Amino acid sequence: MSVRIPAWALVALASLAPLAQAAPGYPDKPVTLVIPFPPGGTSDVVGRQLAMQLGEELGGTFVVNNKAGASSMIGATFVARAPKDGYTLLLSSGSTFTVTPHLMTRMPYTLDDFAPVSAIATVPFAFVVKKDFPARTVADYAAYAKAHPGKINNATNGLGSMVHLLGELAATGMGVDVTQVHYKGASPATVDMIGGVVDSNVEALTSAVPNVRAGQYRALAVLSPQRQPLLPDVPTFAELGYPEIVGETWYAVFAPAGTPAPVVERLNGALRKITASPQFVQTMQQIGNQPRSSSPEELREITLRESQRWGDLIQKLKIPPVQ
């Protein structure tokens, strides 16, 4: 099977030679990659692929440690308090630093407790409806919702989750009033979507694609800036006249603040090479993710920008703290 490598990946590969010499002794003992989510999910697939390829690229041992709970705060706190030597790393989701801090009355860490290393992948989302929902298009959905204010039940992965915010973003962007139904995670929300218990949902492509293809429910639009290869016939909200309904989350690697710059540099170079590799590109595309990379500075800028965006939405919607 041939894999098309994006142009940005070829550029990244061409710039790696100078970085290969940074921190030549690293790693000389096992490195722990903390995943702040349970085993078996998309983050686990991403993390284990990264750990395997980091070991191959840097000639060391990288092990995965799932430390789930408290909206990723347990795992993130563990890394923030780890030795500042590059041997404990965090695979964060976008919400770890951009959503969760706005929904907690007290936080055990801040972004300043971490050294950004590199972005890894983006996670696109699709706006889906149950298979017998009367709307066949986004325009139909908006018209139906306006004719039945508050009557549409939209599933979320939990109060204050990224999926909740994306659902609110879609509703406000369409100018409609829907009832947000908060589940304890993605799986029960998907089960009720399949069962027709709820009317709509914003789902990561990881779960949306197989269920849409199986006819379990229908996708009306994607929230990414461009159409998605796994759902090529599904339009973006932007092309349907809703340019403000654009949102996705992402995975990135962070180290504890104070980690030596040569170690961060070496890790960044390795991660840029890995995210450009055919193996990683294929793995991500198969589960609906899009590989990406960044410099540490770019990752910090992305995080701050997204934190401002979601914080403003949380304030606008008056979403209460969850803890």
From TrEMBL:
Residues 1-22 form the signal peptide. InterPro entries: BUG, Bug_dom1. The keyword Signal applies. CDD domains: PBP2_Bug_TTT. Keywords: Signal. It comes from the Bacteria. The keyword Manganese does not apply. PANTHER family: BLR1237 PROTEIN (PTHR42928:SF5), TRICARBOXYLATE-BINDING PROTEIN (PTHR42928). Belongs to the UPF0065 (bug) family. This is Tripartite tricarboxylate transporter family receptor. It comes from Achromobacter veterisilvae.
